[in-house]
Design the sequence.
RNA sequence: GGCGACGUACCCAAGUGGCUAAGGGGGAGGUCUGCAAAAUCUUUACGCGCCGGUUCGAAUCCGGCCGUCGCCUCCA
């Protein structure tokens, strides 16, 4: 199994520190607003990665941070006289709701930044003691990048090329060098009640320190995989490396995996540009959660994905293919004969799927394998009869696949509201009409049911129905 | 200026030296059907941004050009 490691810029054979066990850290949401589909693309990437690691029989310990304190949140709170928690609560809740909607498996631990201030303080103190960090007049503490020779190794920055930005002049916190970054921000009256009184002063943590502190706490000072969006490579992850490695004197992370952007009309979608699409809006527009999930997972994670409604429509139809396939599979005979051919096709499908995913999670190729399998089975069915054992075999294989995709057997909420007796009665009534060649009546019943979301299917051996 | 990604059919998208260039959506045609719908089957790129080069052989390697996008500032 190979993964593309941002650090080396190439695919590498994956070897965890501890055999059969993977320690995984993912940069999670900043809860100052609702997370949009771009955010969820990267969370779905992690979900696929994690599910695949489990598929490969690894035990996975997954940590995803919740950033519930940052400049924007503090500003909002101070303006409106909220406490941090009052403000961030609803976004946290919305985030977890959306995770559930999109069938994203939860991390084992979701540490909140505000609950780990003391861990951060200890880490910052360590950096102060080592002379790598320095304090400024306003009580802020900065990381001196010149004390960390490897600075820039993730982004491949040449320190001599790093020009002083114009922002330096207007920066609120006086620091020595433009690229020095804040570990701790000294308290300012406009911060209101959002501060911590600690051994290193009154204030609040910088953005990067939480990930260094919390990952070490839950996964150790060196761990296997760290994920995030490509935009986090610099400065966030670069700075995490600097902090952690300078403090601990150990390699921080073995494999860095970054998810490409989801774009909107050829431009990046971000909260600051205001061109955002949220999960709940798509659901309101009657798109199914599984279609959203499918769109987000169906393009390789290192490939830019341009989101569009056409893709969602296309995804709905693609997923219907799975439903129809499963539906047609009900039509088997109880012969208890197992077809060698089916076993063979199933095994090959699983093997090819795995081969594709082993290559840096090549999901497009893997999906191709699954669709080819459906076609093969359909073709087989056109000349042979499937037995109930064949059916079981096929379903089980698809279930193994769906442990990763999480989309084939995902039920729609609508399934629960069906009054089967009523439908069967209508079908009987219609078939009576058909027998009498009363097509008008038969069609009327069909139309009525269709309006309530029930689609009738006339087959040689009788009429059945599907839920639309 | 520094770092980086990408350009394959109408749309999305695999493929990174060698069987007839996966797969999904769409289109076209057939089967089935009272008719529909659905389903299913078949079909849909002599060519992979453009121009050169290397090679017996390139979408795939090398060089140049054109185009799109991203990071370098909060951002998944």
Sequence:
């Amino acid at each position: 199994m190979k993964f593309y490691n941002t650090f080396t810029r190439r695919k590498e054979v994956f070897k965890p520190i501890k055999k059969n066990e993977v320690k995984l850290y993912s940069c999670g949401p900043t809860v100052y607003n609702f997370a949009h589909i771009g955010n969820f693309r990267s969370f779905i990437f992690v979900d696929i990665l994690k599910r695949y690691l489990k598929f490969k029989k690894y035990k996975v310990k997954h940590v995803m941070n919740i950033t519930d304190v940052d400049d924007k949140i503090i500003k909002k709170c101070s303006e409106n006289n909220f406490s941090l928690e009052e403000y961030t609560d609803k976004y946290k809740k919305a985030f977890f709701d959306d995770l559930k909607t999109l069938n994203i498996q939860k991390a084992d631990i979701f540490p909140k930044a505000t609950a780990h201030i003391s861990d951060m303080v200890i880490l910052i103190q360590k950096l102060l003691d080592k002379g790598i960090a320095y304090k400024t007049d306003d009580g802020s503490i900065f990381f001196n990048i010149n004390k960390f020779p490897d600075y820039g190794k993730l982004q491949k920055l040449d320190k001599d090329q790093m020009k002083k930005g114009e922002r330096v002049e207007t920066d609120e916190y006086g620091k020595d060098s433009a690229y020095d970054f804040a570990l701790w921000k000294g308290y300012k009256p406009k911060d209101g009640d959002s501060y911590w009184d600690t051994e290193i002063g009154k204030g609040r943590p910088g953005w990067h320190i939480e990930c260094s502190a919390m990952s070490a706490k839950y996964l150790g000072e060196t761990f296997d995989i760290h994920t995030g969006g490509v935009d986090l490579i610099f400065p966030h992850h670069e700075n995490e490396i600097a902090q952690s490695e300078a403090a601990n004197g150990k390699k921080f992370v073995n494999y860095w995996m970054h998810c490409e952007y989801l774009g909107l009309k050829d431009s990046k979608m971000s909260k600051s540009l205001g061109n955002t699409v949220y999960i709940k809006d798509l659901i309101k527009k009657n798109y199914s959660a599984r279609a959203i999930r499918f769109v987000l997972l169906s393009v390789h994670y290192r490939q830019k994905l341009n989101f569009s409604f056409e893709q969602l429509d296309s995804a709905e139809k693609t997923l219907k293919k799975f439903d129809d396939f499963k539906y047609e599979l009900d039509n088997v005979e109880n012969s208890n004969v197992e077809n060698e051919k089916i076993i063979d096709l199933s095994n090959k499908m699983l093997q090819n799927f795995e081969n594709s995913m082993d290559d840096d999670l090549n999901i497009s190729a893997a999906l191709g394998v699954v669709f080819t399998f459906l076609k093969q089975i359909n073709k087989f069915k056109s000349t042979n009869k499937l037995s109930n054992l064949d059916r079981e075999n096929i379903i089980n294989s698809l279930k193994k696949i769906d442990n990763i995709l999480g989309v084939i057997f995902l039920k729609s909420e609508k399934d629960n509201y069906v009054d089967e007796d009523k439908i069967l009665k209508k079908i009987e009534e219609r078939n009576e009409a058909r027998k009498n060649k009363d097509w008008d009546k038969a069609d009327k019943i069909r139309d009525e049911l269709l309006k309530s979301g029930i689609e009738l299917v006339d087959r040689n051996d009788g009429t059945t129905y599907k839920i639309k």
